[in-house]
Amino acid sequence: MQTRRTALLAGLALAPSLWPGGHAQSATELQDLGTAYALYVSVGYLRDTCLKRDPASAAKVKQAYTTWVGTQNLADFEAKLGQKLGKETLTQLRQGLANDLKALDAALQKLGPPGQSCPAVATIFASDTFNIRKKIPNLTTLLGPGSGSSTTAATGTAAKTSPSSSNVAVYSVAQLSSLMAQTLAPLGKATGREQDAAGLKKLQSLGTVIAVSGTTQRSRSITQEDDRRAARFDVYCYDMANDADNPPKGQVTVAGRVREFDHDTGITLENCVVLSPAQTAQLKKSTVAVVDAGWRFKAQPAEKFLVAAGQGLKDNDILGAYMEQSTGIGVGGMVLTTYPVSLFLKDGTVYNDPYWAPGSFNYKLSRQLEPQKWGRWTRQGNNFVIRWGDGGTETFEVEGAPKPLPAGTKLSGAFQTISGGGNTAMGGDVMVAGGGTYTFQPDGTFSGGSFGSVSSSSVVAGSTRKTGGTYAVSGYSITLKGANGQQQRLFFARYDQNLLYIGGSTYIPDR
User: Which UniProt keywords apply (predicted)?
Assistant: First the structure.
């Protein structure tokens, strides 16, 4: 039985009079447009549903949606499709998707409560499940003039947004990010909408057209970063008039009109044009100061913070290790309940990513290079209130306190950790799995290994690595000595007989 959407598209193909302008299109072309629109509406539906049902993940979902729209070059997709099909037809198409959206909602609910399913949705947007450009590679051609990179379209739009050297300054992404950070700082407890309005007003005060320099990394996202940090607010340029589906890579300067500011994601420009080096050289450079608040710090490789035993934290520096309930992504994209542990120190600070044994952890360097992983805690009954280095505040609800073990404690049993990703939980065909096992013997020896695999309809790949040797437990550390003489000193804690923390992972019995 044909769906309402399929029947409507078939009718359009057979009746040229129904097509705006009287130009008939093939059934295949119309089917492709209908498929693209169905995916477009589905992603919007998932976004809106999660924004309503799980405010805690709203920022993550909004940012993922914004990135998806930019990556897929869909900023004006619905408007162009409306011009192609006619607004009445587009309305009928959306109505015909009602049953599909109900099925999508049912699949979302099967992932668990909103607090678990909605964070997973943000990762699924980037999967092949919703990759419209991959499924419909000729979408730009199907949408017709104005959606591609024709010289006429590019020239016309560029004429409207090309900057004049007399009144336009070039801002780096970091400068604009700093300007937004300083605009938001005095607002206190203002709502998200109020923050967005204040940021937009400030940006628009810079001029009708602004120029921005930065680096393109994710299609139309322009950012700025170094080894330690990245701009807090990226710039999104969805409507680049002179590059169509092939935005420039690397260092770029663009000019465009400010369309939107979102305090969770960044700055959006419209009708962007890519400026040549000669055009850029004619513009003055902004003198806006770059401040710390305009940056976010990037995660650093753990190896940066490894020092010799005894040169890191002392046992009497540590208040304790505490765990809280959270969520993570498992094999196939399924949402899992997790219990990550943070290390609380007696000086009132806390670190949320313990990997090395405390005595081999260069905590001073970590505080400098990854301050977002550090916070200051105050007690609130059995819990903690933490002010993190990036400015966020969290109530850390303690689920348990893994205890340090006396030196010489022996372990027994096999334990495993599994992580993953992919999109099979939402009907896709990509599954990623990774993990490891340790088998401990009371005689002080261990064996184990790690594994990784990825599979889809088109590829299957995997790898394994085995090791073994001796172990020694003391306090919050475990020392693993391999048969080849190599040694690792990792963070270690045991909550009960069924839960171990080794390095940055949680291990449970391998039954």
Answer: Signal
Q: Are 434 and 344 in contact (CB under 8 A)?
A: no
Q: Are residues 319 and 379 in the same domain?
A: yes
d(CA 217, CA 397): 37
CA distance 120 to 99: 23
Listed residues 267, 296, 325: the one ending a domain: 296
Same structural domain for residues 309 and 289? Answer: no
Q: Is pLDDT at 357 greater than 90 in this prediction?
A: yes
Q: First and final CA of the chain: distance in angstroms?
A: 47
Is 51 a residue whose pLDDT tops 50? yes
Which among 137, 320, 162 has a CA at the least distance from the CA of 241? 162
Q: Are 395 and 385 in contact (CB under 8 A)?
A: yes
Domain span at 29:
4-143
| DSSP category for residue 418 | E
Amino acid at 236: Y
User: What's the domain count of the chain?
Assistant: 3
Cβ proximity of 233 and 63 under 8 Å? no
pLDDT band of 26, cuts 50, 70, 90: low
Query: Are 285 and 346 part of one and the same domain?
Result: no
More confidently predicted of 1 and 337: 337
Q: Which of the four pLDDT bands, split at 50, 70 and 90, describes residue 166?
A: low
For residue 125, give the nearest of 49, 71, 79 by alpha carbon: 71
Is the full-model pTM beyond 0.70? no
Three-point CA angle 324, 325, 326, nearest 5°: 120
Kindly provide the b/e burial profile for residues 325-360, where b requires at least 16 CB atoms within 10 angstroms of the residue's own CB: eebbbbbbbbbbeebbbbbbbeeebbbbbbbbbbbb
